[in-house]
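stuck on this fold:
=====
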Amino acid sequence: MGARLDRSSHEADRIWSNGDDLAVSLPSHPATRLLHRWTHAREQAEVVIAGATLMRGIVWFRRDLRLNDQPALTEACNECDEVIPLFVFDEPLLQSHVFSPACVNFMLGCLQELTTSLAGLGFQLQWRRGEPDEEVVQAAREWKADVVYWNRDYEPAAIDRDRKIQQALMTRGVAVHTFKDHVVFEAEEIRGSTGAPLQRYSAYRARWWTKWHATTPPLLPSPVRQRNQQGGTSSPRIALPTVEDLGYQTVPLSINPGEKESQRRLRWFLDGPVHCYVKGRNLPAIDGTSKLSPQFRFGTLSVRTAVHAALGTFAAGSRVSRRDVLTWIDELIWREFFQQILSAFPQVASSPFRSKDGLPRSRPSGAERNRLYAAWCEGQTGYPLVDAGMRQLNQTGWMHNRVRMVVASFLIKDLRIDWQSGERYFMQRLIDGDLAANNGNWQWASSTGTDSMPGYRIFNPMLQSRKFDPDGTYIRQYVPELAAVPTHRIHAPHMMTQEEQALAGCRLGTDYPLPIVDHRQAREEYLGLGKLQGTR
């Protein structure tokens, strides 16, 4: 059995290669040389001891659909003579339709590329459908596995599931090795002075950077080609199920799936948009963000790789602004902050973090509530920026981050509809639907989270529109009935005169709705109700 990789080294050289491969080169730390020596020794060995037992391991792929910087796969290749990659389609989860069709289409696209990439290294991806706590244990029994490897998932349901599977495997004499991967630092690694989880982002961010500079998490080498094939230990190769097989519809994807695309997208972003990220990230009409959120969701790109690559732009002679790059990394740290909140306080998955959530108890109900909620979902509120955002979500499975904040504020504070309804709707539509990020951002917008927007802060959708989409390009793209509306009216078309409506070919109340609420009045009512209840 091979030597373990030494993860204590902190040296890491350039991330990108110049070839057309998966684009991540090997870090130049001692672990690489150790792995090369170990691989060479195995390939050169010509004498096999009679009766020797081969080590067989299963790598259970979950939210880590890639080959590069993949801890579970790297360690399995290091330790085992035979490695069997496995993916389990969680049947109960799929049937619950918690995720969007775009999300499932994206996942299948990632799996298709992963299957091809693994085959190039001599691996055959096996897949099963059912309940993971049954399928993983059954696979280990059928394939006579000695050990099962996986990278940890931090969602409450996943933690419970993995605990049961680990116990069942170990009871049967199968070892289990798990690894940190979905985040740079796990919740237990970043704590306050008392050892408690940090509940303020500013404090968490400071500790995160301190930890990064102290450890500089290294990148792992790519796996080498497998020498011992799987033979008859696993079932014959069967094509992956289709989206329809899984109970979903095929939909066009606005973001391409797979590890190669995530590498290409990261290079493109760091070569261009990141140079003006502080300003560009707030403009929905331009391609100013990385759009890597679905790639992080399914792990076709590791966060470690992204941070190393971003910091690598500070090379000598580079004109990139440190502020722009660090602002983008801040978004990755926010992601980890929400993840550690979910890990430390799993109750937030179903309830507000704050016991006094600060929301007015006087809310619309019955038919009125349903009417307002449907208008929000369909992008028919009469507020162009809100409508453009919701239509972008419904059409593409993605929405610009600035607009996500605006539509969330509008639902919660203008319409006074509970934030959980918005959270659920987003998960059913987003291509990058992630429990920790989605829940954390909705609780931030609703002023119920651990470090959230003040309750008195209410986004004005018309002012936000004028500031971040001044010429109405984004609005016209997703609300075509307003295409001919003059720019000085595009942000508040309900102010158009009859003559202006005729010239624009847009009749209010017929071609485009009048505002379903008056923002100024809704704001005053929201704040007034909060003061009466002592929640502001």
Notes: The longest helix spans residues 322-344. The radius of gyration is 25 Å. Residues 74 and 223 are 6 Å apart (CA to CA). The chain has two domains: 1-44+51-344, 366-532.
